[in-house]
Amino acid sequence: MKGLPDRFELLTDLYEVTMAASYFENDMADPATFSLFVRKFPPDRAYFVAAGLEDFLNHIANFQFSESDLAYLDDTGTFSPDFLHYLKKMRFTGTVRALAEGEIFFVNEPILEVTAPIIEAQILETFAINVINFQSVIATKAARCVHAAAGRRLVDFSLRRTHGTDAGLKVARSSYIAGFVATSNVLAGKLYGIPISGTMAHSYISSFGDELEAFRAFARSFPDKTILLIDTYDSVKGAQKAAIVGKEMAQEGHNLIGVRLDSGDMSQLSQEVRKILDEEGLDRTQIFASSSFDEYKIEKTIKEGGMIDAFGVGTKMGVSSDAPYFDIVYKLVQYGKRPIMKLSTGKINLAGEKQVFRKLDSQGRFSEDIIGTRDETIEDSRPLLEIVMQEGRLLRKHPSLEEIRERFQKNFQALDATYKALQGAPSYPVKLSARLKAVQETASI
């Protein structure tokens, strides 16, 4: 069985290629604009976090069908030699306007708009939806966890249950954008420069046969990075043994960084463990908790008085268990000079090339967004869609992951807390400009 390819031009739905072939046969080559947006919020969501743009841009900046790609398409017997020759020469020559990664956005607002000859723009649909949807889903879920944690640190523990190896890497990156402080994913640490963090498994403890000796052995191996997993047998007794090791470490000039709870009533157990550690003079030793945490469990544990300093957040964040996908689409909104509107029931889109304008109140918080036409300006607002690629060329170097993370933090601070509520949040005001409304009235179906 072959591994993943180095290139992903064929990572698309067949109908993208068959439509492209038909455009070619019918000499359709006018510029087309496609808009990527989310139609509606999943349950309990009131905002989204943009992520995945870097992967999309890298893909189209180097877009080129390989000889083996073209040979495979030829073998299907579906496509003409002339069309395959066209694909061999095809490169992306268009323009991309997009929200920067780390921006907050809302339903119906374009995340990006691609303008290019229709074949070039059309064939990117599947890849655009795939990379932007997944990474934005995870960044949004992670942002909710960060908000629920109220300043406590979060670490990505999701790798073993994400939906594939690439997903595991993208979860680490997206959750870091949204405020997680580290990941257990060592390869993500190498690739993205994200701090890595981890402790030990229950198998390590049980392999020794004696919990105290296991703790001592680990402390000898990592005297300055010791976090002890204390729930293999009994969490309270484990905490007492951890305290013994912590005091022994202190005599050697080292500090027991923390203990980790991985089962049971986290609120009650963390209070008991905190008391044990404090009574033994280990007030600097922190309590970490893992096991099926998401924003809802984090919020509940804190409200119940949990004495937890940091959470390992895994499966439910890594697959966004309560909202594993967004209703995200990539729709033709203009062909040539003709605005295009789809009128299918429940699937109407906004016609025309657009811009999103964000207004702030006197305290620098988001007050409302206005979706307008691409060529208009709206006073006292910030346009969110930036030209990131023109004539097929990237206009600037990608921002660093730290810069993206800082952008998100700045934006998230400016979003009022009412919209961050885990349940029952109100709808943020998003309006259409008068000019965009006029475009809808003249749009073609």
Record keyword descriptors for this entry.
6-stranded parallel β-sheet, nicotinate phosphoribosyltransferase, 445 residues, 16 helices, 2 domains, single chain, TIM Barrel, 7-stranded antiparallel β-sheet, alpha/beta, 19 strands
- CATH class group of the largest domain: Alpha Beta
Largest sheet: 7 strands, antiparallel
Number of domains: 2
Helix content: 25-40%
Shape: elongated
| CATH homology-level superfamily of the largest domain | nicotinate phosphoribosyltransferase
Subunit organisation of the chains: single chain
| Uncertain stretches | none
Give a topology summary:
Layout: H1 14-25, E1 31-38, E2 48-49, H2 53-61, H3 67-75, H4 81-89, E3 95-98, E4 104-105, E5 112-117, H5 118-122, H6 125-149, E6 153-156, H7 165-177, E7 182-183, H8 186-192, H9 202-208, H10 211-221, E8 227-229, H11 235-251, E9 258-261, H12 266-279, E10 286-289, H13 295-303, E11 310-313, H14 315-318, E12 328-335, E13 338-339, E14 354-360, E15 366-373, E16 382-383, E17 386-390, E18 393-394, H15 401-414, E19 430-432, H16 434-442
Parallel strand pairs: 6-7, 6-11, 8-9, 9-10, 10-11, 15-19
Antiparallel strand pairs: 1-5, 1-12, 2-4, 3-5, 3-17, 12-13, 14-15, 14-16, 17-18
Helix pairs in contact: 3-4, 6-7, 6-13, 7-8, 9-10, 10-11, 11-12
